[in-house]
Amino acid sequence: MKQKKILLLAGSIVAALLLAVLAASWYMLDYALRPGDRGHDEEAAWRGTDALFPGMTAWRDSLTRAGILRDTTLTAPDGTALHAYYARAARPTRRTALLVHGYTDNAVRMMPLGRMYRRDFGYNLLLPDLRYAGRSGGTHIQMGWLDRLDVRRWLDVVPALFGDSATVVVHGISMGAATAMMLSGEADLPPAVRAFVEDCGYTSVWDQFRKELRGRFGLPPFPLLYSASWLCGVRYGWDFREASALEAVRRCRRPMLFVHGAADDYVPTSMVRVLYAAKPAPKALWVAPGSAHAMSYHDHPEEYARRVAQFLAPWM
Question: Is the whole-model pTM more than 0.85?
Answer without folding.
Answer: yes
